[in-house]
Amino acid sequence: MRFTGKTETGLRPQNEDTYMLLRTEAFDAVAVADGMGGHRAGEVASRTAVEAAERVLSSGGDNRESLLFEAFKAANEAVRVLASSDDSMYGMGCTLVAAAFDETTFIAANVGDSRLYCFDGETLKQVTHDHSFVAELVRRGAITPEEAKTHPRRNLITRAIGAEMRVSVDVFSCEWKKGDMLLLCSDGLCGVLSDEEMAEHLRGCEDLDAACSELIAHALTCGSRDNITVVLVKNDGGDA
């Protein structure tokens, strides 16, 4: 397994995205979080959530689905506790998308609108479901995916880490094969580039670091004004 990540502040005053790359004895795991809140609170929320999730995933055990549930619960509690202890952090929260994987399967989980895609060498398929106002409109057929990219309420998410006492987590168990890739990202990337534009950077990809940089550069060129975070995972069939 090979994986890497990159984050870019872009036009924002600070970077409120955080990502995780983790190896354990039983599996590998990655995550992306996108913060929200007042001055610097989003940055704190995303970092707090990822650190809490990493502690759980590093704690041992090989039941990846159960560990992911616990990781998201821990992330939610950590953000809530910190937000309640400091008035300047009141109302902060973040999205969180994560995957735990071996050579044959990956377990993905998400809260919010940061995404996980699977790429089979030709087609990029979104695995996670966005928890956002515009995603719900798209599911109802009220607007198109293209219209969602410019909708005035496109940044309104309907689930977030730290927003409620109990967090509702979507979990997906998927098979994958040697040569497949995972793409995790914040909406600074997928809110600007189409699936086909992102897929174009992954076709024939061997240099994951270069692909991350190219995806970010493309999003900036296309007008992304948000922080942009990209994590790529390549299934090399057990090769280091």
Describe the structure.
With 240 residues, the protein is α+β, with helices and mostly antiparallel strands. It has one domain: PPM-type phosphatase domain (Phosphatase 2c, domain 1), CATH 3.60.40.10. It has helices spanning 41-57, 64-85, 133-140, 145-148, 187-190, 195-202, 208-221, and strands at 2-8, 17-23, 28-36, 93-101, 105-111, 115-119, 124-126, 170-175, 181-185, 228-234. The radius of gyration is 17 Å and the shape is globular.
> Which structural class best describes the helix and strand composition?
alpha+beta
Number of strands: 10
Shape: globular
Strand order, sheet with most strands:
1-10-9-6-7
The CATH homologous superfamily corresponds to PPM-type phosphatase domain
β-strand amount? 25-35%
Percent helix, as a range, is 25-40%
State the assembly state of the protein chains.
single chain
Average pLDDT works out at 93
For the largest beta-sheet, the strand count, sense and barrel status come to: 5 strands, antiparallel
Tell me the layout of helices and strands.
Blueprint: E1 2-8, E2 17-23, E3 28-36, H1 41-57, H2 64-85, E4 93-101, E5 105-111, E6 115-119, E7 124-126, H3 133-140, H4 145-148, E8 170-175, E9 181-185, H5 187-190, H6 195-202, H7 208-221, E10 228-234
Antiparallel strand pairs: 1-10, 2-3, 3-4, 4-5, 5-8, 6-7, 6-9, 9-10
